[in-house]
Amino acid sequence: MSMLDLSRLQFAVTTVYHFLFVPITIGMSFLVAIMQTAWVRTGHEKWLKATKFFGKIFLINFAMGVVTGIVQEFQFGMNWSDFSRFVGDIFGAPLAVEGLLAFFLESTFLGLWIFGWDRLPKKVHLLMIWLAATGTLLSAYFILAANSFMQHPTAYVYNPEKNRLQLLNFGDVLTQNTTIITFTHTISACILTGGAVVAGIAAWLLVRGRNIDVARATIKLGIGAIFVGALALGYTGDQQARIMVQQQPMKMAAAEALYETAAPAPFSIFTIGTLDGSAPIYSLDIPHGLSLLATHTLDGQVQGINNLQAQYEKQYGPGSYKPNIPVAYWGFRLMIGVGMLAALWGVFALWAIRKGRNPRSKWFARIALTVPFLPLIANSAGWIFTEMGRQPWLVFGQLKTPAGVSPTSTSWIVGISLVVFTLLYGVLAVVEFGLIRRAVILGPPDDVIDPFGEDKSDSDRPLSITY
């Protein structure tokens, strides 16, 4: 493999692995905050147990996300230095704000929440988890603003003397429509993911007959989050598709393996056979479906891959501007299909616990434990589609991927680091799974003492972390 291929593969491994933890952390931060709010407002012990139980799982994921995120950002300077030099004035600004402001506030408030259980007033302590959760949103927003600039460059000027892009208006980068719709779509996925984790674990507890009061309360909360996330994903996904057609029509054409411009254009549910433009063995289509998705009209025109290839050759010069069609096609379907499975499980689980019923089927428990993995698969497929569908561009219309790699890197250096990171992440995955598995098996605490219920002197306060 070439140094370019290895650099791309390494960034893919670290990014996809890192993004396994991000949606869980963001989604669960708000669900844990809701659990603690319910406890503060009602005084019911079940909500305190739920807060401590799911708060432990949330913290494990947060720690893993921090570790993997740092490694990911180092690659911009190590493997992609020409990209960083070309677009660093713009790309670096939201990342700097994220690190110096959003992540700093997020980690600070989270630290106060961890250590402040018996040291802060009850409502002030509750405020800490809400502020930490808000910090996760801010971090996501600034990072997605940087990525959205790569998808749709705006508010910049090209400096031919320095051969780099220069920022004109930071506010425009933060508020362009690509940033806003990408953020809302991603946060919707985080809500669904957090809900799937909470509901899946709570369903397992129900079947095992453990902490029934906690399990019933949290499975309803988790299912509610699944429904909210699924509905929001449907709306934001529709809006994002329309923006994609306007800004990156090749990505949408690749997602449908649509080679020739069509009006109306069908939506392909799945295809058996090749995706190279020849007649497939079998294809199941929804007539007018793609036209409706892309233009909100039944007969709207959608540009095809071949037509766009000819257009881009005239605009940008000779070369292939087609992304990997099978990856884009199946990634798009995997993102939608697997995400819908999680929502369908939510409907089934709500039916299973109706009128105070507690399911006892082992199959229900086994399926429930697989549910948290469904949105993780959908999230990963969505990001792979988003990034691979933009190829061959690193910055759409401005910088191709081969031009962004570090000129001093070698295949050996990148290859060795790729192996090391992959093995390290494999070990971290085992550790992560083991910690969460142990926490789930232990379950919520059987008895809890209100940490704010007694007036302790400083000498009586324990110095250990609650978790």
Features of the shown structure:
single chain; 467 residues; two-stranded antiparallel sheet; 14 helices; 6 strands; 70% helix
Q: Secondary structure elements and their pairing?
A:
Layout: H1 3-42, H2 45-78, H3 81-115, H4 122-151, E1 156-159, E2 164-167, H5 170-175, H6 177-208, H7 212-247, H8 249-256, E3 267-272, E4 282-286, H9 289-295, H10 305-316, H11 325-352, H12 362-370, H13 373-388, E5 393-395, E6 399-400, H14 411-442
Antiparallel strand pairs: 1-2, 3-4, 5-6
Helix pairs in contact: 1-2, 1-4, 1-6, 1-13, 1-14, 2-3, 2-7, 2-14, 3-4, 4-6, 6-7, 6-11, 6-12, 6-13, 7-8, 7-11, 8-11, 11-13
Structure overview:
The protein is mainly α and 467 residues long. It is 70% helix and 5% strand. The chain has helices spanning 3-42, 45-78, 81-115, 122-151, 170-175, 177-208, 212-247, 249-256, 289-295, 305-316, 325-352, 362-370, 373-388, 411-442; strands spanning 156-159, 164-167, 267-272, 282-286, 393-395, 399-400. The strands form three sheets. Strands 1-2 form a two-stranded antiparallel ribbon. Strands 3-4 form a two-stranded antiparallel sheet. A hairpin with a 3-residue loop joins strand 5 and strand 6. Helix 7 (212-247) runs antiparallel to helix 11 and helix 11 (325-352) runs antiparallel to helix 13. The radius of gyration is 24 Å and the shape is globular. The two termini are 45 Å apart. The model is unreliable at 455-467 (pLDDT under 50).
